[in-house]
Amino acid sequence: MEDEKLHMAAEAASSVYDHPESDGRPNPVQRRYLSRGLKQAGGKLPLFDEEGQHFHPALIRACIAHGWAEPWFGNPLKPEWLICKLTDKGRRALTDGH
User: Fold this and answer.
1) Residues 30-43: pLDDT tens digits?
2) Sequence-separated contacts (24+) of 15-22 with Cβ below 8 Å
3) CA Rg, the chain, in Å?
């Protein structure tokens, strides 16, 4: 389980940098995270995956760096948590495939 989480984090962060294979679209892990905001009020993105595991900060930061997500508000009880929402660019990336 820990290996899978590390792999997901590495994959999520990989497209933040100028890799030749990056086409500016969310990779499968990023797409899975971002798509959860499509049906939430205000596009709120989850803190936890379907299995109750916290999404890795590298995944969230990668989505922010691409402009697909943006910080929504800070949590005074858990300031390290990145509470974000889906942006219009993120919606287009998911629905238009861009």
Assistant:
1) 999 999 999 999 99
2) 15/62, 15/66, 16/61, 16/62, 16/65, 16/66
3) 13
CA atoms of 94 and 43, how far apart (whole Å): 13
* DSSP assignment string, 12-79: HHHTTS--TT--SS--HHHHHHHHTTTTSGGGBPPSB-TTSPBPPHHHHHHHHHHTSEEEEE--SS-T
Is residue 56 within 8 A of residue 5, CB to CB? The reply is yes
Please, are residues 60 and 66 in contact by the beta-carbon 8 Å criterion? no
Q: Which tens digits make up the pLDDT trace of 42-57? A: 999 999 999 999 999 9
Q: What residue type is assigned to position 41 of the chain?
A: A
Which two three-digit tokens encode residue 74? 């800070």
